[in-house]
Design goal:
Length: 404
């Protein structure tokens, strides 16, 4: 082989290596998950620092570069006209495998186009595996938060013996989750604390996503932007009647509260959705909160903050088994003007055992829905969908009776 040939081959090999490196770097990962180095208690820290100082310096440099890339790639939330919005999932580490189906569904049907962030919250530190797997699926930034202990424990005014007696009684009566402590912390957290988590402070709108849910149809508009542009504060897909035994005194406490604070009820509130007798009793209708798209500022506002505090002091999260769904729903119905609460007929959705499936054939085909309209729950007897349409004078689809 001639010397010039050998040089040429060496040159070609070096060039190929450089090109390959550039290719790998430029491809990168579309996720912006960077293990946090924050010391803050509420956010998770990264792996332990490496012992070798040279390795530590190299890692630090890599991390800084990576963070720069994050900043460059994803503008600050709310800047440049993009609405400050995030998905939020409360989950345990063992929920990972049932949650990823939900994430994939939301990403495929909606978020891959819009790349909104996703906040994950847990009462225990998330595992590296949880972070690695979820961040690979989300097209926006992913953030992982630890819930402060005081938001996930018995408040000091709760009588623990009384709470234990309730759990025993509910267990005997076979009330679902009736004997669970963690379920109660979860309901109280979703009712009164998730929107206060520091990772949510950057955001105005949220969409709650639970494990094992499905989005049935393409969503080709930015639903958060739509909420903002149309001045909607709360959006739902499924509504139904609550299990009365879990909320025996919730309405009584609500009546006491609104008597003390009539100023929190706008004139055009939706009392007629939650009460059939002008507020004397609760008809059990509520929005199913495993799906929620809402404005965080509504929960952060004075009316809801005072309402939650009243309920929390009354103790029904522990002495009964109040769910976040009736609590949120009663608040949305009473403290918002009715036109700020929105039903999404177009968001095909499933959480066991109910479906929201568009009953308009043309819509379903155009949006590539994968659900059977016969399963749609909206106009069935146990649903509160008919009531929502009636009290708000919304036109029902022409074929609704075929699905009632
Ligand atoms: N971190 C944490 N998350 C929880 C806990 N319990 C429930 N969750 C989450 O809270 C949400 C509601 O819990 P689910 O178990 O789905 O409650 P549910 O929807 O009433 O009941 P299912 O019909 O079983 O789905 C889900 O996102 C769960 O992942 C818990 O103890 N810790
Ligand atoms: Mg669930």
């Amino acid at each position: 082989m001639a010397r010039s040939d050998a040089r040429l081959i060496r040159f070609a090999a070096v060039a190929a290596a450089v090109l390959l490196t550039i290719f790998i770097l430029s491809k990168g990962s579309t996720t912006t998950y960077v293990p946090s180095t924050s010391n803050n208690n509420n956010q998770q820290s990264s792996n332990a620092a490496p012992v070798d100082p040279a390795l530590a310096a190299a890692q630090k440099e890599k991390q800084e570069k990576s963070e720069e890339k994050t900043k460059a790639k994803t503008p600050a939330v709310g800047s440049g006209g993009k609405v400050a919005a995030t998905f939020v999932s409360l989950a345990r580490n063992q929920d990972l495998w049932s949650l990823i189906g939900s994430i994939r569904s939301v990403e495929d049907r909606f978020n891959r186009q819009f790349k909104h962030d996703w906040v994950f919250l847990n009462d225990e530190p998330f595992t590296e595996e949880f972070k690695r797997v979820t961040s690979a699926l989300v097209s926006g930034n992913t953030k992982y938060g630890l819930i402060p202990k005081e938001h996930w424990s018995f408040p000091e005014w709760i009588d623990l013996e009384k709470a234990a007696a309730t759990r025993e009684e509910m267990k005997k009566n076979k009330i679902i989750y009736g004997d669970s402590i963690s379920y109660r912390h979860m309901c109280r957290y979703e009712s009164g604390f998730f929107y206060r988590h520091e990772l949510l402070q950057d955001y105005e709108y949220y969409w709650r996503v639970e494990p094992d849910v499905k989005i049935y149809c393409d969503i080709d508009y930015d639903i958060f932007q739509w909420m903002k542009d149309n001045n909607k504060q709360y959006g739902f897909t499924i509504s139904l009647h609550e299990y009365a035994a879990t909320i025996e005194t919730l309405w009584q406490e609500t009546r006491t509260f609104i008597k003390e604070h009539p100023e929190y009820l706008p004139a055009d509130n939706m009392m007629d959705f939650v009460s059939d007798d002008g507020g004397f009793s609760y008809n059990l209708c509520h929005f199913w909160s495993n799906f929620e798209i809402g404005n965080l500022n509504f929960w952060r506002g004075k009316a809801y903050s005072d309402y939650f505090e009243h309920l929390d002091k009354a103790g029904g999260f522990f002495y009964e088994r109040w769910g976040d769904a009736p609590v949120h729903s009663i608040a949305a119905a009473l403290f918002l003007p009715r036109d700020q609460v929105h039903y999404f007929p177009d968001v095909g959705y499933y959480h066991v055992p109910f479906h929201n499936c568009p009953i308009d054939d043309k819509f379903r085909l155009e949006h590539k829905c994968m659900c059977n309209p016969k399963d749609d729950f909206t106009f069935r007897g146990y649903s509160c969908g008919q009531k929502f349409h009636t009290v708000n004078k919304l036109e029902k689809p022409s074929n609704w009776q075929d699905y009632s």
